[in-house]
Amino acid sequence: MQKPPVEGEGAALDHRGASGWQLPEVHPEGRKFVLGVAAAAFLSYFIWSFLTWPLIGLAVAVAAFFRDPVRVTPLGDDLLVSPADGVVMAAERVPVPAEIAGDAGLGAPELMRVSIRLGLADVHINRTPIAGTVRQLVYSSGRFQMGDGDKSAERERQHIVIEGRDHRRIGLTQIAGTFARRIVSFVKPGDMVAAGQRLGLIRFGSRVDLYVPDDMAVQVVAGQRVVAGETVIARTGGAPLPRVIRH
What's the pLDDT score for residue 197? Predict the structure, then answer.
């Protein structure tokens, strides 16, 4: 008989299992785009045949962009796992966004922020860093803005606050890309989530910020590649990483 899921985790146990590689599925959010480009490729064969192969290649690229691979998530209330695939841009102490800085949010004026840059080749499905309950979800349409620095706060973004089972609260911010902007959410306030659960995606997105509680030590450094739902970003009682060795 299958063991019943732990309370708060049943919604997302499908992403755990055997760690062997398997061909990723295309997320439903992206299938309409793949079908649209594939249909254009089919029609071009009868009208402008020189476009057929480029459009087929584009359909494959769009399918790869919206791929949704299986992830195996380490469990533990003392761990924060990465919310996104990509490269760590910075791990630094910064002011918390005003939208989630109050007592109803993270309850701290400053926290360590781990910023992860997503490239076009990265998986764009975002995942929950801890198991718990979604307490806040604040969306801002923003405006078009170049760059990955502080001006990214002017772009479309979504702030999410999750309260763990130990009542520790973490925050993350999804920041959309410069031109193709669209943040899609799979959760809402009050939802119970598991660590590593799919929480949303950024269509052609550029960055995800994770705000780490003061009692947790960051375990990654700038330049390190991380994997959503698998890489441990921070842990309780862990020592920070003061040095790195580049090979």
Answer: 94
Among left, alpha and beta (phi > 0; psi -120 to 50; other), residue 41 is alpha
| Among 211, 215, 219, CA closest to 242 | 219
pTM: 0.78
Residue tagged 């998530």 (tokens):
73
Name beta bridge partners: 207. 117, 175
Q: Which residues are catalytic?
A: 206
b/e for 191-210, b at 16 or more Cβ within 10 A?
Answer: bbbbbbbbbbbbbbbbbbbb
